[in-house]
Amino acid sequence: MTFFKNKLTVTVIVLSVSFLVLIGYTVNKKNMTAAEDGIGKVLNSIQGVVYKVNNGFKNNINFIINYKKIKNENKVILEENLQLKDKALNYDALKNENERLRQMLNFKNQRTEYDYLGCDIIGKSGDNWLDGFVINRGTEDGVKDRMVVVTGAGLVGQVTSVGSNWAIVQSLVNENIAVAGMLNSTRENDGVVKGYRDYDDKLLAKVYYLPLDSLVKEGDLVLTSGLGGLYPKGIKIGTIINVEEDKGKLIKNALIEPSVDFNKLEELFIVIPKNNREVKY
Amino acid sequence: MKKIFTVSFLLIALMILDNALMPFISIKGVYPSLLFLFVICFSIINGSKSAVVLGIFSGLLQDIYFIDGIGINMLLNMIICLIAARIGGTIFKDKAIIPVLTCILLMLLKGIFMLIILYILGHHVYLKIIVYRSIYSIPFSILMYIIVYKLCERPFMVKNWRF
Predict the structure, then answer these.
(1) How far apart are CA A38 and CA A148, in angstroms?
(2) How far is CA A276 from CA A142, A243, A259, A273, B69, in A?
(3) What is the pTM of this model?
(4) Contact between A122 and B20 using a beta-carbon 8 Å cutoff
(5) Structure ipTM
(6) Do A128 and B30 touch (CB under 8 A)?
(7) Which of A3, A6, A19 would you mutate first to test chain B, the one with the most B CBs within 10 A?
(8) Tens place of pLDDT for every residue, chain B, 163 residues?
C-alpha cells in the first residue's frame, strides 16, 4: 500500500512539473495549439446550438416578465424614431456636402479603412475568472489576435486568441484590457479606459490619467481616441457617471457606464483593418 | 469500458453546459462550474487514482476555453481532486454535509490558486467573485453530490479502472 501511495505521489509530482513547463511554454502564444483548436472545433458545433437555444429561451422569458416595460420602451423608441428620421434627412444632405468637401481636400476617410465582419457568440469563456466570449469566426475568416470587437452600441473588447474557425474575445469590463479614450465634449485624448467592478458588482469601466485641469463632467461621452493605432477612432465606449480627483498623482479618474450591455450581447462585429500593417503585434 | 464511456460523456456534456447554460442563470455575472463540482464529488467517492485522471481530463476541457496557455486548469484540478480524494478517504460518504462543505472549500482554494497564477501571468481577478462563486455553488453541489453518489452505486461504476 505504501508502495502504491509513493508511486501515486511520484506520478503527481512529475505531472505537476510537466504542467508547469507546459503553462510556461504555451502561455502568451498568440495562436492556439493544434490540439486546443481541434477539440474546440468539435465542441463548438454542439455548444453553439445549446447556447442559441438557451439564449432564445432567456429572451422569451424576459419578454414575458418585462412585458409592461417593453411596451413603454416601444413607445419611447417610436417617438425617438420620428426624431431620428428627421435627423437622417439632414444627415444625408450634410454627408453629401462633406464628401464633396473631402474630395476637394483629398482627405483620407478613416471609417472606410476598416471592414466589419459579423459573428455570433457561441459560448462564454474564462470560466468566470475572466470575462470573455467564444465567437464563431477565426483565422479562416481573416480574424487576427488583438483585433477589436464592436456592436452597434459601442466597443465590446478585443480578440485575445484565435483558432481556425473560432476565437476568444475578452470584454472591456475585465480589467486586463486597456483602451485609449477621448472625451467627446472636450476632445481631450489622454485617457486610458479599463474595466471596473463597483461594490454592487455592476460591470463598469473607468477612465484613468486625465489631467487635473480636465473639464470632464458627468454625462460626457467617451470615445476611442485611435491613439496607438490599435482601435479605430470614434467608437463609442460609454458615458461618464462619476468623476474623482487623485490629488496625489495629479490626475482625474472617471467612472464610465459602458454603452454596451455586456449581459445581453448576441451579434458582434469584428473590425478588420483593410491595411494589414495596422494590427501591431 | 462502460464506466470510462459514461464518465467522459458526462464530462464533455457538463463542459458544454458550463459554457452555454450556466451564464444564463448567473447572478450578477457569477455562476458556478458544474464540471468542477462533478469532478470533486467523483473524487471524494472514488479515491486518488480516479481523482488524478479526472482532474487532468476536466482541466484539459476547461483549458480549451481559457486564456492562451494550456495546463493551468489541468494542474489545479489535479491537485484539488487529489485533496478531495484524501478527504473522501476519511469521511462517511452517505451523508452529504461534509462532501458539500469540501466542495465549497476546494472551490475557494482553486480560486485562490487561480488568482495567484493569473497574477503571475499578468491578469487580474477579483477576489470577491471567487467568494460569491463558492457561495452560489452550495445548492448545486448538494444536488451534484447526491446525483454522483447514486451514479457511483450502479454496478457498472463499481468496477475498477483499467488503463
Answers:
(1) 24
(2) 10, 38, 28, 6, 26
(3) 0.74
(4) yes
(5) 0.72
(6) yes
(7) A19
(8) 788 888 888 898 988 888 888 888 877 778 888 899 999 999 988 888 888 888 998 988 888 887 766 788 888 899 999 999 988 888 887 788 888 888 899 989 988 998 888 888 877 777 888 888 888 888 999 998 899 888 888 777 776 555 5
